[in-house]
Amino acid sequence: MGDEAKIFSLSEVSEHNQAHDCWIVINGKVYNVTKFLEDHPGGDDVLLSSTGKDATDDFEDVGHSESAREMMEQYYVGEIDPTTIPKKVKYTPPKQPHYNQDKTSEFIIKILQFLVPLAILGLAVGIRIYTKSG
């Protein structure tokens, strides 16, 4: 690496997205991995799919070895301008209605929905038996 690192914008790096010219961004650094495409253990598709964006999360999720990290130095071409990388949007789940954990009122309603018709049926049968015997 030289004393003055060249600064690239994400759009400049994004132009290098082919098998014959492939650049990726990892941890704020730009790497020209064109010569490494054929040797990459995960295949060239993995690297090609990481072009045009900050590939740091993809790189870290795989859990690369220390030797892989050291090998990256030979492909270093400069730094990325951090203002050109889109900010990550934090996911906020949609608002849900309040969840009634004990469901006591719902439980009572269900019991009543069962017992009231049963009581009416029992009353009708009782009246029928009483009026027939008398």
Automatic annotation (TrEMBL):
InterPro entries: Cyt_B5-like_heme/steroid-bd, Cyt_B5_heme-BS, Cytochrome_b5. PROSITE patterns: CYTOCHROME_B5_1, CYTOCHROME_B5_2. It comes from the Eukaryota. It is a single-pass membrane protein. Its main location: endoplasmic reticulum. The chain crosses the membrane at residues 107-130. The keyword DNA-binding does not apply. Belongs to the cytochrome b5 family. This is Cytochrome b5-like heme/steroid binding domain. It comes from Arabidopsis thaliana x Arabidopsis arenosa.
